[in-house]
Records
---
Amino acid sequence: MTDTPEPDSAQSSALVKRLPIIVIAVVAVLGAYFLRDYLTFDALAENRESLIAFRDANYLLTVLVFIAIYTVVVAFSLPGATIMTLAGGFLFATFPGFLFNVIAATMGATGIFMAARWGFGKQLGAKLEGSEGIVKKIKDGIDENQWSMLFLIRLVPAVPFFLANLIPAFLEVPLRRFVISTFFGIIPGSVVYTSVGAGLGEVFAAGETPNLGLIFEPHILLPIIGLCVLAVLPIIIKAVRGKKGL
């Protein structure tokens, strides 16, 4: 009589590790469907007076609730991160609004980073490390210039925020390095959008919509490009010196 084979513990362990990122994916899909009419500019405009009244009566509670909601929006990749940034400026002005935005976005990004890294990061990182050719060269280049690359993907407006959270997880970036680069790397963009939110009172009064393309205007974009150049400067210096880089 043969023994009945036990369930594969390795497969069970893999499923448990991937459960957080699976939950995030499911919540993201459900949130995109059910919350699409709530986290919008129109919803913010319609509820502006009640939000201001609640803030004036419960400032600290408003700050805590706002940060909690924003963190959840980012952590679960829900629609409305830009609206939350505008709301931060609308409710709390450019300062300290941008600081609340950066704190919440960093905490949410850290949540999805840890979920992805726990579920896939080590396995994918090992596969990339064991690969050959151009893939291995790219990984080695990123490993040697992690600070520069982390700041660069945060500063460049064209890089989607959720991708900037996932890529470092797959490349085994240390948590501390990810948190620091995220916090400081998103400050420029956050300041711009928070300042737009701070001026929403006039926008609402005029019945208009905010100019979210402001970040691409020369007087805003050029300084950000300058920061991007500073971020890649160590890579350029290494290349000029003949060292291995990207």
---
Amino acid sequence: MNYIDVLGYVAACFTTGSFLPQVLKVLKTRNTESLSLGMYAIFTAGVLLWLIYGFLRKDSAIVVANLVTFTLTATVLGLKIKHDLKSY
């Protein structure tokens, strides 16, 4: 592993880790009222595309980061959709 790979993994840890507090808060409180459905839907789709891109490029830093981020954002998105459907 070279310094470029290390840089990629460190960046991945920071950007992916930034979603962890939001996910933990949503899981704890089950409150998604203040979250934007549109933002989470678009962001989750974008992360999925990055994940596919990482697979196609065979870039493990991109794959790992986006797999974890997709899991986190899809969890919040699912809870947001569930909350919004209950509100109607």
---
Amino acid sequence: MSDIPPDISHDQYAVRLKKLQDMRAAGSDPFRANAVQTHFSGEALKAYVDGADYSVPVKVAGRLVVIRDMGKSQFVKILDQQGQIQLYVKKDLVGDDAYAAFKKLDLGDIIGAEGALFKSKSGEVTVRVDKYVLVSKALRPLPEKWHGLTDAEQVYRQRYLDLIVNEESRKRLMLRSRIVASIRQTLATRKFIEVETPVLEGVAGGAAARPFVTHHNALGVDFYLRIALELRLKRLLVGGYDRVFEIGRIFRNEGVSRKHNPEFTMLEVYQAYSDFRGMMELLKGIFTDICRDVIGATEIKHAGSGQLINFAGEWREVRYFDLIDEAVGFKLSALRTAADYKAKATEAAQKLGLEIHPAWETHEIVNEIFGKKIEPTLIQPTFVTHLPKELSPLAKLNAEDPALIDVFECIIGGMEVAPAYSEQNDPFVQREMFEKQVGEEQQKMDTDFLLALEHGMPPAGGMGVGIDRLCILLTGAESIRDVILFPSLRPSDAKG
């Protein structure tokens, strides 16, 4: 079976197929190789000169999405990358045969048209068509205008239909592309170099996540789809790339939720001779440029809480354990070296209504409090700093308290958008942290990365920005599926 839904419009399909056969019998090609396009719809609308009807020639192309038959003329609208534009097709202008053929076109057909711009009686900038050509015949009808795609699953399985009929989806996903372009521009102006690193890895490193496994037939070995970009990019710091970034796909064989997809897009950026505070300034700069160049505002409405998130104001900075102490109502942080620390943390979490697994380590219990009771409440931009060292083996230990690490998690809209570190560059400390992380499973340790560190890595700040989560935040989407063009779905014929 395939993901193509069963056809429920046999009659329309048969009618359109008959039209196609008639066109071919008459010597017409309903699937052209090309069509000249001088303007997108938005560009054509901007090109109109007020008071100078028919003075600006344009050639446009797109999908028929509106047809209004006036008898000897038709007002139609076509959809292209930039939106819709109205066309005026008149029998006297295009000729009897061409007009008769035009009247046989269906919604969904793709046409090219050339003519001059004018403003209709209703004040809408319109193309008066002198010539047109059918470039691609649509054999299946578009979703019904008023009800559209009513099956949420179909929206994701047939995203191409969603993009045609749902203007909100189209704008949101176009906005995503502009957000990514803005990030690239910001980093380029700050002298960062964009690179590409392998998707297939011999060791799944750089994060704590379950990888996807694939087999390389020619080499006869298993590889992992990467779970992070970090360790490859840090090798480049060793190699003399002082400012480097990658926007790449990450794969984690874990759960699916409103904020999680098995494959997602991550920006990872590393700056030599900087630290986690340098990453704070870089992240603010990224948001400043997106607000100015893409969003056009420094405030957005948070979809979940209704609050206005202000990116131009002061970004809060607060220590992790200060938030924990506030949430539990006592100085839990003062007990971090006490024998009953785990018991007190468990008791505090249970009083907050959290279910704690007996096998969890203390830092996991405390982080459950943070993740479930604190993070969702942080709506305004917040840098949560100085987390327990167990939460990241790749970060620099804090000089004043080696049980903590010099990091931040940037929380906005109740979710983590960007973690950042002062990167660990001591090969001995890094090896020790890796060994504690992997335990007896030494094959999971990236020994080549440790070898690279022994050649000397400059001090650096590093940051990851979840592009999908960033887009959820900035577009007001309800789910990560709404900001990914083709999210991961169970095959339609899968069982269970």
---
Amino acid sequence: MGLFDIFTGGSGPDKALKLKSKVTQKYGDPATRQKAIEQLGEMKFPEAVSVLLSRFTITVDPLTTDADEKERTFDLVRSFGKDAVPPITDFLGKNEAATSWALRLLGELLTEDEVLGACVDALRHLSAHYTKNPEKKVVLLHHVTGKADPRIPPVVLPFLEDMSDDVKIAALKALGSFKYEPAREPMLKLLTADETARRVQTSALAALAEGGFSVDGYQTKVQPLLVEPYALGQDGRIQRRA
């Protein structure tokens, strides 16, 4: 530590880290939190971005103040440019909260292909690690839905076995547009399992119909589960009637 650091409270990274408690302070004078946010925006090193990102993990009252502060934080993080990408990617991987903010920031700083790569990596990590809150999985699955990228189906498939129905439904929607053969039997097992909720079954029917998969080997179990507008065609595939 140099002489200048003694009078300014430590080196740049240390100063940024010390501001985290103020940035994530939910109660008290909001001016303290807002001042810390502005101070971090003037610091040009990764630790400042990491601390700014922590603002997205809390919600304060009133909600108008919360929204204004988060938008200001978003603008400040974006101003770091490509230097902000590693801290954002790290945040996306390690935090259960604020996934939508991280993706929005990456969308401003990276190409769509690069953002999808970050989503794929995050989903791969999530499929191998327990998380209590399903929200992060759902946000990531929604982001990759409709994207024609071959990296997506293999990392989405494990989420058909997730404990959360919302996650299963999001995974089914993401898989529906792919003709991904390894998904056929897991979808059919999910559809026909005794414990599967009706809304999950309906999503499974939609995904199987969209994927054009045969119900070979499951026809007897599938038949009584068919609901409008789905029917079993003569070719053994689920069809959606117009």
